[in-house]
C-alpha cells in the first residue's frame, strides 16, 4: 500500500490523482514499428517481464553478497531487505564501495550485455546499436530521504537524443513505496519546460545545476503535469528518452532496498560523449 503523502529528498508530494497517474504498461509483444510509435508518443515504453525475473534476482543477490552478511535481513541477499545495520563503507559507488567493483565485474557486464537489451535498442533505432560503457548502479536504503532529483538524461550526456536510449532496469521488485522511478507526463514534448522552470525551481543542492529540482510537487504544479508511476516487478524494464523528465521517490515504510541500473545504447557510428566511455564511479562528476 502506498502512503497518502510521498516524499522525494524529503520534499512531500500527495499521492493523489492531481499529482500521479499510472505509467502505460506495454506487454513485450509489440512489433518494432509499434514500439517506436509508442516511444515517440509517450517518451518511454515500459515492458513488463522483458527479462526473466530469476536472472534479475541472481544479479541482485550477487551484488548484495558483496556486503557483510548482516546487511540483509536474515542474511537473505536474494530478497534484499535492509537489516537496519549500515556497514562502514565509502559512500555509495565510490572506490571501495561494493557498487564500484560490481559494475566492473564480469557478472554485471554479462547481464548488461545479454542480447535482449541490444536487440531492443536496435529495434528503437531501426539501426545497429552499441552499449555505452558507463552504467550506473543505484541503491536506496530504507530510512533515508535520498532519491533521484527531477532531471533529463540529456543534461548529463552529450549527443543527439534520437541516437541514445536508456533502459532502466530495477534489480528486484521496485514498488513506489520502496522509492521508485517516476516520469513527468509528456515532458519530452515540452520544449519550453526547462527554460520555464530553471530560474524559479527550488533546489536543495545549491551548487548542482544539473537537476531541475528536488521538489516533485512544485514542478508538477508549475508544469501542470502528473508523475507517472508503477509498482515494478523484477524483470520489468523501462526504455526512456534522454528528453523526458524523471525522478524518484524516497523509500517509505518498507524494509525493501531499491536497486536498479541504467543500461544505455547509442546508435552505432554516432558520437559518444567521451565521459561515458569508461566505467561508472559515483564521484566521477557527471
Ligand atoms: O534510478 C534512479 O533513481 C534514477 C536513474 C536515472 O534517472 C538516471 O541514471 O538517469
Keywords:
single chain, 286 residues, alpha+beta, Jelly Rolls, 7-stranded mixed beta sheet, 4-stranded mixed beta sheet, binds 2-oxoglutaric acid
What is this structure, in a nutshell?
The chain is α+β, with helices and mostly antiparallel strands and 286 residues long. The protein has helices at residues 32-42, 53-64, 98-102, 106-112, 115-125, 193-198, 216-223, and strands at residues 5-8, 11-14, 20-22, 25-26, 44-47, 129-132, 137-140, 164-170, 181-184, 227-229, 237-240, 246-248, 258-267. Strands 4, 5, 6, 7, 8, 11 and 13 form a 7-stranded mixed beta sheet that branches.
Explain how this protein is built.
This protein is an alpha+beta fold. It has one domain: Jelly Rolls. 21% of the residues lie in helices and 20% in strands. It contains 7 helices and 13 strands. It has helices spanning 32-42, 53-64, 98-102, 106-112, 115-125, 193-198, 216-223; strands spanning 5-8, 11-14, 20-22, 25-26, 44-47, 129-132, 137-140, 164-170, 181-184, 227-229, 237-240, 246-248, 258-267. The strands form 3 sheets. Strands 4, 5, 6, 7, 8, 11 and 13 form a 7-stranded mixed β-sheet that branches. The protein has a 4-stranded mixed β-sheet with strand order 3-10-9-12, with no helix packed on it. The longest helix is centred in the first third of the chain and has 12 residues, at 53-64. It is globular, with a radius of gyration of 18 Å. The two termini are 35 Å apart. Residues 136, 138, 148, 153, 181, 246, 248, 260, 262 line the site of 2-oxoglutaric acid (AKG).
Amino acid at each position: 500500500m502506498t502512503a497518502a503523502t510521498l516524499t522525494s529528498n524529503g520534499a512531500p508530494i500527495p499521492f493523489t490523482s492531481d499529482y500521479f497517474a499510472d505509467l502505460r504498461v506495454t506487454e513485450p509483444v509489440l512489433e518494432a514499428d509499434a514500439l517506436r510509435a509508442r516511444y515517440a508518443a509517450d517518451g518511454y515504453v515500459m515492458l513488463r517481464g522483458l527479462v526473466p525475473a530469476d536472472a534479475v534476482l541472481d544479479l541482485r543477490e550477487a551484488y548484495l553478497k558483496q556486503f557483510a552478511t548482516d546487511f540483509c535481513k536474515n542474511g537473505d541477499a536474494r530478497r534484499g531487505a535492509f537489516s537496519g545495520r549500515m556497514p562502514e563503507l565509502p559512500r555509495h559507488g565510490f572506490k571501495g564501495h561494493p557498487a564500484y567493483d560490481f559494475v566492473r565485474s564480469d557478472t554485471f557486464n554479462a547481464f548488461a550485455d545479454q542480447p535482449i537489451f541490444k536487440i531492443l535498442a536496435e529495434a528503437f533505432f531501426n539501426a545497429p546499436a552499441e552499449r555505452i560503457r558507463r552504467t550506473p548502479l543505484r541503491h536506496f536504503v530504507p530510512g533515508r530521504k535520498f532519491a533521484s532529483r527531477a532531471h533529463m538524461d540529456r543534461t548529463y550526456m552529450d549527443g543527439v537524443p534520437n541516437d541514445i536510449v536508456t533502459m532502466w532496469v530495477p534489480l528486484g521488485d521496485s514498488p513506489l513505496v520502496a522509492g521508485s522511478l517516476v516520469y513527468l507526463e509528456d515532458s519530452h514534448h515540452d520544449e519550453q519546460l526547462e527554460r520555464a522552470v530553471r530560474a524559479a525551481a527550488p533546489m536543495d543542492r545549491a551548487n548542482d545545476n544539473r537537476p531541475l529540482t528536488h521538489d516533485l510537487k512544485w514542478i508538477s504544479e508549475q508544469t501542470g503535469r502528473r508523475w507517472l508511476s508503477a509498482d515494478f516487478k523484477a524483470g520489468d524494464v523501462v526504455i526512456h528518452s534522454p528528453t523526458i523528465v524523471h525522478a524518484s521517490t524516497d523509500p517509505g515504510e518498507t524494509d525493501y532496498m531499491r536497486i536498479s541500473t541504467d543500461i544505455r545504447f547509442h546508435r552505432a557510428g554516432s558520437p559518444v560523449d567521451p565521459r561515458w566511455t569508461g566505467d561508472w564511479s559515483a564521484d566521477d562528476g557527471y
